[in-house]
Amino acid sequence: MEEAQKYVWEGAIPLQIHLHESEVTTLPTPPPALILAPRIGYLPLLVPQIKPHFSNALPPGSPDTVWFDYNGLPLKWYIPTGVLFDLLCAEPERPWNLTVHFRGYPSNILVPCEGEDSVKWSFINSLKEASEAIQAIALPWKRNFKFEEFPEVFLKMSNLRLLIINGFDIPDALDFAPNSLKYLSLDYSSLKCLHLVSNQRSLFILTCPLASLNIFGKEKRTPDFSGVPRLVQLKFGGCSNLVEIHPSIGQLSRLKYLDLICCVSLTNLPSMSAEMQSLTTIRLYNDVYGCSKIRSLPKFTGIMKSLSELYMDVTAIKKLAPSSIKYLTALTLFDLSYCGNLKFLPCNMDNLRSLEKLIISGCLRLKLLPRLPSTIRYIDARYCYSLEPSPALVKLSSLLQPYSQWFPYNESSGGVAFTILYRFLQGLLCQKTVNETSTKRKEDEGESITEFQIIIHGFDIPSWLTHQSVGNSISIELPSNWCNCKWMGFAICASASASASASKPIRIGIRARVIALGDTPQNNYVSKLLFGMMPCEDNIWLLYLSRDNWFATVGNGECSQIKVIFETDDSALHVWECGVNLLYEQDVDEFNQTNAQCLIEKLRRV
Fold first, then answer.
1. How far is Cα 180 from Cα 56, in angstroms, rounded to an integer?
2. What single-letter DSSP state applies at residue 300?
């Protein structure tokens, strides 16, 4: 849509305008005027630029009405310049050579033109005449444009579907917009009141990005949405004065997308009921600003069966109500990044039975992660400096032999990653015990998808990864009988950071390639991961590659060595170290038992 608007509104034609020879009074003949004329403009509107250019060559006395011709044909001033050019130039010439006249107006051929006012009224009258055929109007900002002259024009546009208004003070004239509107965009505009929405029962999309402070009137709230039952998209991004959203939004059963990006004065979100059965996305943040005063999730009063993406990043949320979490059964992406006041996640996070991506990067005060659903596939926990590893790690380092080399633990970020990974593996084992598929392989553009990913702030490869190497690759010898029925998969890890030469956050891809080395080497391509807006800091990337994923590419696993290679899409991202480890069911069982012992001891102390 933006490209189309730009093409239409910024389109121009180069003109070379000559003064008619009969009106030249000086020698030498004045040079032609070179002007870039808007395609959607009108020739009389160029007179303020043309007249000063030829003023010294004109005969004395006041000139008549200015007019133009092309190859001797008088040009109709009330037709847009672009249309005239397209009609008269079978083979487009650049520049288009026109002749200007300041005398002898051909009133027997052309309708009189009294300047800019005539052009304006001609435009409005043309809209009236063609009103029933008009389906789309886009009005860019123009100085001194009077929108109040449009009411009677709107009344006749019975087929108007799309209306884009950019940068106008819009009075009550918009109340006369036809009920046929499906898309209404009020970019950079201000309204004294937005009650017109209540009459637009066919409206599908309403956008008011970066609207003026007056858009919501004195109450600084949105209008009643009960009159727009078909609304599919609602965008109020950048409305900095919006304080309240009308509760009727909870009745919009067809609403799919709600955009409240940068509504910095908004303090609460409205209740949302199961009636909003189509809602898929709620977004409060872009790469610059968020809703920094929001302190809680919306109050969900019923199962949100379609809500799959919830972006609550950069808000003032302190805690998440378990009563709201239980209704988000369809949620696949939950973004809580940079919620600096958030200390805990609710204990019923595992009720999010569809959750695949959890983003908590920048939650500086977040201390513990509860049990997460087994569907989780990606966790971004960068800059969560307060996160604590499981107390079982301490026990494991002293009780488990010969696994003590896994856990001489002193790096907290690696401990957090370990805890998260093993809780995920525990969920897989629980599924296996009830005869459900322990892993699910996905496809993405021909490459296999890793089962689980964690990004966390840090530099050193966690010490529980027994095989480590400097650089972006590592090769290991596999023990005999390594691929037994208890083998769950590989844990592979990389320590990566953006180059210090990168002057701003970058978006760089990183992927791992696990190669089976045997009689017939085969490649297993693990998923490509984008770090998002990655700053020039150190991060650890931990992946779990399941046995099912491995077998689907390599076959029966007959190999004696593997090689893991980490690759990046840009030299600005450097992999410093990497590691790999084989994971078995007994390791997860040991972790669970020790974790349970720690919990019992803690309860006894209480």
1. 54
2. B
Higher pLDDT, 412 or 111: 111
Judged by DSSP in three states, 278 sits in coil
Q: Does the structure show a pLDDT above 60 at 351?
A: yes
Candidate ranges 123-137, 334-348, 428-442, 452-466; pick with highest mean pLDDT = 334-348
Residue type for 451, please? E
pLDDT tens profile 134-168: 787 776 655 555 555 566 666 677 778 887 776 65
The β-bridge relationship of strands 136-139 and 169-170 is unpaired
pLDDT at 573: 79
Closest CA to 407 of 581, 562, 545, 565: 581
| R_g (Cα) of the chain, nearest Å | 33
Tell me the residue type at 27.
Answer: L
Helix or strand (DSSP H, E) at 552: helix 547-554
Of the candidates 586, 598, 544, 581, the one whose C-alpha atom is nearest the C-alpha of residue 389 is 598
Pairing of strands 233-235, 257-259: parallel
pLDDT at 176: 61
What pLDDT score was predicted for residue 447? 42
Q: 246 versus 198: which is more confidently predicted?
A: 246
Averaged pLDDT score across all residues of the chain? 76
Most distant CA pair in the chain, distance:
109
Task: Give the tokens for residue 53.
Answer: 């250019």
Domains and CATH numbers, the chain: 2-117 (3.10.20.620), 141-290 (3.80.10.10), 431-593 (2.60.120)
What is the per-residue pLDDT across 299-308, written as a single tens digit (0 to 9) for each? 998 999 999 9
pTM for this prediction: 0.68
Structure-block tokens of residue 58: 């004109």
As a whole number of angstroms, the distance between CA 552 and CA 556 comes to 9
**What residue type is 592 in one-letter code?**
N
Residue among 60, 78, 57, 76 nearest 68 (CA): 76
The tokens for 195 are: 């009650």
Q: What is the mean pLDDT of residues 511-526?
A: 69
Cβ neighbours of residue 72 under 8 Å, at least 6 residues apart?
A: none
The strand pairing partners of 183, in sequence order, are 162, 205
**Residue written as tokens 């300041």?**
102
Q: Which amino acid is it at 507?
A: R
Confidence (pLDDT) at 401: 33
- In angstroms, the first-to-last Cα distance of the chain is 62
CA distances from 79 to 154, 350, 533 (A): 21, 65, 49
- Rounded to 10 degrees, the C-alpha dihedral 551/556/561/566 comes to -10
Q: Sign (positive/negative) of CA torsion 303, 305, 306, 311?
A: positive
Cβ neighbours around 507 below 10 Å, total: 12
Whether the Cβ atoms of residue 336 and residue 342 lie closer than 8 Å to each other: yes
Query: Hey, what's the torsion of the CAs at 354, 331, 250, 275, to 10 degrees?
Result: -20
Neighbours of 468 (CB within 10 A): 18
